[in-house]
Design a protein that fits this description.
The structure is a single chain. By secondary structure, the protein is α+β, with helices and mostly antiparallel strands. It has 4 helices and 8 strands; from the N terminus they run ααββαββββββα. The strands form 2 sheets. It has a 6-stranded mixed sheet. A two-stranded antiparallel sheet has the order 5-6. Strand 5 and strand 6 form a beta hairpin.
Length: 139
């Protein structure tokens, strides 16, 4: 039951993010949440609190990145929940009919009473670095 409800809310938040509205995604984080994005790309690092997570989300939107959620599994109780998300992301920008950047990812979130307290993204960080290189070459 939790997985279904969490999946509906998450997909609604991602739909808004894809449309350029970071509000629903940002409000899903606790004020002191931590978002960890691995690797050496320009996205890489730990973002602490909504004040650091907000620019991360704005950059995602500003670059035209799009995300599609494939599967959501929520376990635990509302005051101590873990959410696993399988998703794909890509750019709107195309080269030869294909997105300039496309990746698969797994997101693991810890949540308490409907707010994300800790999130870690797992994805091919070399693809993210390749996208950085493409953007740098394009100016």
């Amino acid at each position: 039951m939790f997985s279904t409800v969490v999946g509906v809310l998450l997909r609604r938040s991602i739909k808004a993010l894809n449309a350029g509205d970071i509000g629903p995604a940002l409000s899903s984080y606790a004020e002191d949440a931590v978002l960890v994005f691995p690797g050496e790309s320009t996205f890489g690092g730990s973002y602490r609190g909504r004040s650091e997570i907000e620019p991360f989300l704005r950059r995602f939107v500003d670059l035209g990145l799009q995300m599609q959620v494939d599967k959501v599994v929520a376990t635990g109780l509302p005051w101590r929940m873990t959410v696993y998300v399988e998703a794909r992301d890509h750019t709107k920008e195309q080269a030869g009919g294909q997105p300039v950047y496309a990746n698969r990812l797994v997101i693991v979130c810890r949540a308490k009473w409907g707010r994300i307290t800790h999130q870690e993204d797992y994805l091919d960080t070399q693809r993210v670095a390749g996208y950085d290189a493409h953007r740098a070459a394009a100016g």
